[in-house]
Design a protein that fits this description.
By secondary structure, the chain is of the alpha+beta class. The chain contains 5 helices and 7 strands, in the order ααβαββββββαα. This is Coenzyme Q-binding protein COQ10 START domain-containing protein.
Length: 202
C-alpha cells in the first residue's frame, strides 16, 4: 500500500482522529494525475546538536542500511550493489507496509546528503552537517518533504499532525545521536588502548 506518511495516520488513529485509508491506496503519480488528484509538497524540519566531530557524524549517518537502528518505523534499507546512489526503503507500522526507491542526488562529505524518491512513496529531503560554535560538535538539520494529496496536506498542516511529524523526525535524530556518541566513545577507547599497547612495546 502506497501511503503518503504512516506516522501521522497511526497517531491519528491512536488519538481518535479519523483517516480514510481507502483514499490512500497505491496510486502512482501518473495515476493520481489522471484522476485529477491535486498534490502538494509539504516540508518538515528537525534540528539537533551532536557532540561529535562533523566528519564522524557524517560517516555514521551516511550508512543508510544502519538507519533502522535509529528510525523504528523503518523496517529495512538496502543499498543497490550495482549503483550505490540507489537504495530501497521499507517502512512498516501497525500492519501497514510502504516501500520506495530513492536516489542520492547530492552527497558532499561532510556537509550534505540529499535524496529524492524515484518510485513508490513520493518524497525528497536532505541532511546538512555544520560545525557548531564550540568547534567540537555538529549541528544537524534534517529536511523531509512529502508529495501528498490535498486532503492529506490539509490534515498535515494542522498543528496537531504537523507537530507530530516534526517530533517524529526529531526523535529519530535523538536516537541517532545516542548511537553515534556510543560509537564515538568505543572508538576513542579502542584508540587509547592501541596507543597504550604501542607505548608498552617501545
Amino acid at each position: 500500500m502506497d501511503i503518503t506518511f504512516v506516522q501521522p495516520f497511526v497517531a491519528g488513529q491512536q488519538r481518535g482522529l479519523h483517516v480514510d485509508k481507502t483514499r490512500c491506496g497505491s496510486l502512482t503519480a501518473r495515476a493520481r494525475a489522471r484522476q485529477g488528484i491535486r498534490m502538494t509538497w509539504l516540508e518538515t524540519h528537525a534540528r539537533l546538536k551532536v557532540e561529535a566531530p562533523r566528519e564522524f557524524v557524517f560517516s555514521r549517518y551516511s550508512n543508510l542500511e544502519a538507519m533502522p537502528q535509529w528510525s523504528p518505523w523503518l523496517e529495512k534499507v538496502v543499498v543497490d550493489e550495482q549503483d550505490p546512489t540507489l537504495s530501497t526503503w521499507k517502512l512498516a507500522a501497525r500492519g501497514i507496509s510502504v516501500s520506495w526507491r530513492a536516489r542520492n542526488v547530492r552527497v558532499e562529505e561532510p556537509e550534505i546528503i540529499q535524496w529524492e524518491s524515484v518510485t513508490g512513496l513520493s518524497n525528497r529531503g536532505k541532511v546538512t552537517f555544520a560545525d557548531a560554535d564550540d568547534g567540537a560538535s555538529t549541528n544537524m538539520t534534517l529536511t523531509v518533504s512529502f508529495n501528498v494529496p490535498g486532503f492529506i496536506a490539509a490534515l498535515m498542516k494542522s498543528d496537531f499532525v504537523g507537530n507530530y511529524v516534526e517530533r517524529t523526525l526529531l526523535a529519530d535524530l535523538e536516537r541517532f545521536r545516542v548511537i553515534a556518541l556510543r560509537e564515538l566513545r568505543k572508538e576513542r577507547v579502542r584508540m587509547h588502548q592501541q596507543q597504550t599497547q604501542s607505548q608498552a612495546q617501545v
